[in-house]
Amino acid sequence: MNQPAHTDGAVPALLERGRALAAPALREAVGRLAPPMNTVAAYHFGWIDADGRPAASDSGKAIRPALALLSAEAAGAAPETGVPGAVAVELVHNFSLLHDDLMDGDEQRRHRDTVWKVHGPAQAILVGDALFALANEVILAPGTADAARAARRLAAASRRLVDGQAQDIAFEHREHVTVAECLEMEGNKTGALLACAASIGAILGGADDALAESLELYGQHLGLAFQAVDDLLGIWGDPRSTGKRTWSDLRQRKKSLPVVAAQAARGPAAERLTALLTADAKKTQEEFDDFDEAEFATRAALIEEAGGRVWTEGEARRQYDAAVAALHRVDVPGPVRDRLTALADFVVVRQK
Fold first, then answer.
1. Which residues form a coiled coil (predicted)?
2. What is the model's pLDDT at position 7?
3. 77-103, pLDDT tens digit by residue?
């Protein structure tokens, strides 16, 4: 994919600022959990290793905290105003990761074993639930009318996120999913929380509904661009960068954008792909786990031949353009708009 014109070298600094400002409050919130949930959560966040020793593992891209702080600045507030929103959104995001890893059977995240693999399924469920509860405590802690507004947005985004996960699981055993259905699912599963992150700091800073809704629209389109790129990486990503196995989404029978776009196309490759995926949907997981690398490679090649890869790359760029356009609907300070645009650039050109 060609790199967008607005890529900004300041993005790493924005991400680091998000981590630095949110980290103390995030650690404090996690520290409230009863043992052993506090240490299991600390392992998930990369703060300790499986034996409880301090670690400095990859803790994620920190896009959502960065967005929450920029959102506050878009409303003319100090970035610190967005910290409760940054922490709350990060807690909800990680609640979903803990549960998703268990439901999907993923054994690796961020280049190390997932929580359910190390500490067992029960702990993955409990800690995920606990992080969700903490998110609500954190966002309501300021006790202001704006905090209540922010909490309502967070609750709505969380429900949509769960809706999206339910749709994603249901699609795995369906023979056919439309592009529109896939975009709706991804808008829920990924777009909703990024939309919340992009507006929650502004709401905490007293923004009016017009500004909050434009920032939310920016985040919604950004989330769809993010997921389109994630879908590409889920099939063709380098495991050394993604931390996941080769063909990871194909192994899970995910009806991601490249897959559904390829099936929607016409021609021999689309027909052969559809025949294979129809047969796959009827197999047990044990039968599917016996597939060798060549069988996944065949499916990936058919998706590409049918045009699914090119279409998804184009969709990522279309969603990027829509996200940037949303920033011009309202009066956002120029430097803040530039940084939000730079974050969108980063999402579209990332490799992991």
1. none
2. 46
3. 999 999 999 999 999 999 999 999 999
Handedness of CA 127, 133, 136, 139 (dihedral sign): negative
CA distance 290 to 126: 31
Q: Which CATH class is domain 11-349?
A: mainly alpha
* Whole-angstrom distance, CA of residue 24 vs CA of residue 70: 18
CA dist 349 and 329 (Å) reads 25
The domain locations on the chain are 11-349
Per-residue pLDDT tens digits for 168-211:
999 887 878 999 999 999 999 999 999 999 999 999 999 999 99
In angstroms, the CA 164 to CA 182 distance is 10
Q: Is the link from the previous residue into 36 a cis peptide, with omega within 30 of 0?
A: yes
Beta-sheet pairing, 112-113 with 108-109 = antiparallel
Tell me the pLDDT tens digit for each residue of 27-80: 999 999 999 999 999 999 999 999 999 998 766 789 999 999 999 999 999 999
Q: The tokens 């829509």 sit on which residue?
A: 322
- Helices 334-349 and 209-236 pack at an angle, to 10 degrees, of 20
Contacts of 88 (CB under 8 A, 6+ apart): 135, 136, 138, 139, 150, 154, 200
C-alpha 158/C-alpha 126 separation (Å) is: 17
> What percent of the chain stands above pLDDT 90?
78
Instruction: Please give the structure tokens belonging to residue 210.
Output: 């017009």
* 1 pLDDT more than 60: no
Cβ-based burial of 136 (10 A; exposed 0-12, middle 13-18, buried ≥19): middle
The dihedral formed by the CA atoms of 20, 99, 243 and 216, expressed in degrees to the nearest 10: -50
Helical H runs in the chain? 11-30, 37-44, 63-74, 83-104, 115-119, 121-140, 145-171, 179-186, 192-204, 209-236, 239-242, 248-251, 257-264, 268-281, 285-289, 293-305, 308-326, 334-349
pTM of the model: 0.91
